[in-house]
Design a protein that fits this description.
The structure is a single chain. About 5% of the residues have low confidence. It contains 15 helices and 12 strands. The chain has 2 domains: about 375 residues, Rossmann fold; about 100 residues, no CATH class. With about 475 residues, it is α/β, with parallel strands linked by helices. The protein has a 10-stranded mixed beta sheet, with helices on both faces. It is globular, with a radius of gyration of 21 Å. Helix 3 packs across helix 4, helix 5 runs antiparallel to helix 6 and helix 5 packs across helix 13. One of its GO terms (cellular component) is vacuole. GO terms for molecular function: serine-type carboxypeptidase activity.
């Protein structure tokens, strides 16, 4: 399907679906009932925390779970930031909040402070989405279908509409709980497959704002995002080769006989050709199962923080090795006392998991480009930052940089800040380039697919610059 036609259809149908729902009375509770007194094992902090459910459909008992931490200092003066993890189907609570940029990280039976938490700069809202992820639930065992107006639409377009609509409804009803944040500056950030979730949600907000200003959207930031399937996935071969993970001969094999996007397409359609199987076997043999593809320099625990990446990257022929003895985030969030403190409950599942195995999600959605949606957001005057941890071979920086540069050319945006280094402390934090003072690309030096996990200091500097709309530090 042509990308522009798809985008227009999604907007028209999503708007039609949402209009009547905006005026449906949804069961809500005062935010006070969602206030967290204290999390088990938590050190003393001065900021407030909230968590609980926002019901987006009373009749079908569809509820999304959130975790909200106010800014450390003077939350009234700080913006609101919505964080979404990818997958599809991975938890923003377990990955984003408790492994990456939230205020705490589990360590044994206690929580330790993350000294580079993003709530130093903003009020952080983590959403477990879609329904079925983490503590979010529905009384249905399978996803709904949308009404007869779009009966001819394929399943993955239906699901895209439902997820985008749910996320927008969540925010509207979350604002009912927290009206003091309704007019605040709003930024949406996330990583990986959120390269699909975030642009779609942002574009829907922009369309609603044309009728009535409901969202004070000020920018979106996408970390190592899936934006255009072939470009993103096929940049992996050059990354492997340039970092010494594969030989010259295998690089040639990997780019001519069967590239990575072809292999993934065949894999998801359960029709892997002999030539692709042979190529991937050779690539897997050389890259080694003892190198983490989401951080090619990592030689420590592969924990929950990497689970979201594995969803968008099919297992290679060789089996993976998990050098973790236990996953502390999973253990912590499955404790009954922790779930009670979070006002969370398990519905339809026996255990909280990092990434949902019950989602009826069409994996072929990954082939739908969203770079064009990013373009429409820029044209609407909303700043966009695409950033890349430069040690990630799954969605490598080279593909993301190429896509951003191509989009800038397509939109007629001139370079307003030439490609240069930026600093964190007395070290190079990465590289950056800005187009038209509205579209930016940046790398985070030494960072993995989950940049705030592997390079927290540098990620926080990038985040602060993004929120303030200021250039990344040029000197140390």
């Amino acid at each position: 399907m042509h990308a522009l036609h798809w985008k227009t259809m999604v907007l028209v149908v999503a708007l039609a679906l949402l209009q009547p729902m905006l005026f449906i009375k949804v069961e809500s509770f005062p935010a006070l009932s969602d206030k967290i007194t204290v999390l088990p094992g938590q050190p003393h902090v001065s900021f407030q925390q909230y968590s609980g459910y926002v019901t987006i459909d009373v009749k079908k008992k569809r509820s999304l779970f959130y975790y909200f931490v106010e800014a450390e200092m003077d939350p009234a003066s700080k913006p609101l930031v919505l964080w979404l993890n990818g997958g599809p189907g991975c938890s923003s609570l377990g990955v984003g909040a408790f492994s990456e940029n939230g205020p705490f990280r589990p360590s044994g039976k206690v929580l330790v402070r993350n000294e580079h938490s993003w709530n130093k700069e903003a009020n952080m809202l983590y959403l477990e989405t879609p329904v079925g992820v983490g503590f979010s639930f529905s009384n249905q065992t399978s996803f709904e279908t949308v009404d007869d107006k779009i009966t001819g639409m394929s399943h993955h377009f239906e699901q895209l509409l439902i997820d985008t609509r749910d996320n927008l409804l969540f925010l509207l009803h979350w604002f009912d709980k927290f009206p003091q944040y309704k007019q605040k500056e709003l930024f949406i950030t996330g990583e990986s497959y959120a390269g699909h979730y975030i642009p779609q949600l942002a574009e829907l907000m922009i369309q609603f704002n044309k009728k009535k200003m409901l969202f004070n959207l000020k920018g979106i930031a996408l970390g190592n995002p899936v934006l255009e399937f072939e470009t993103d996935f096929n940049s992996r071969a050059e990354y492997f080769w340039s970092h010494g993970l594969i030989s010259d001969a295998t690089y040639k094999f990997f780019t001519s006989a069967c590239n990575y996007s072809r292999y993934v397409s065949e894999y998801y359609r359960e029709s892997v050709s002999p030539i692709c199987s042979m190529v991937m076997s050779q690539v897997g043999k050389e890259t080694s199962r003892f190198v983490d593809k989401y951080d090619v320099t990592l030689d420590v625990c592969t924990s929950s923080v990497f689970s979201q990446s594995k969803i968008i990257s099919p297992q290679q022929v060789t089996q993976s090795v998990d050098v973790c003895i236990e996953d502390e985030t999973v253990n912590y969030l499955n404790r009954k006392d922790v779930q009670k403190a979070l006002h969370a409950r398990l519905v339809g599942v026996n255990k909280w998991t990092v990434c949902s195995s019950i989602l009826d999600y069409d994996v072929l959605n990954v082939e739908i480009p969203t770079i064009n949606v990013v373009g429409s957001i820029v044209k609407a005057g909303i700043p966009v930052l695409v950033y890349s941890g430069d040690q990630d071979s799954v969605i490598p920086l080279t593909g993301s940089r190429k896509l951003v540069h191509g989009l800038a050319e397509e939109l007629g945006l001139n370079t307003t800040a030439a490609y240069r280094v930026w600093f964190e402390g007395k070290q190079v934090g990465g590289w950056t380039q800005v187009y038209g003072n509205i579209l930016s690309f940046a790398t985070i030096r030494g960072a993995s697919h989950e940049a705030p996990f592997s390079q927290p200091e540098r990620s926080l500097v990038l985040f602060k610059s993004f929120l303030q709309g200021t250039p990344l530090p040029e000197v140390f």
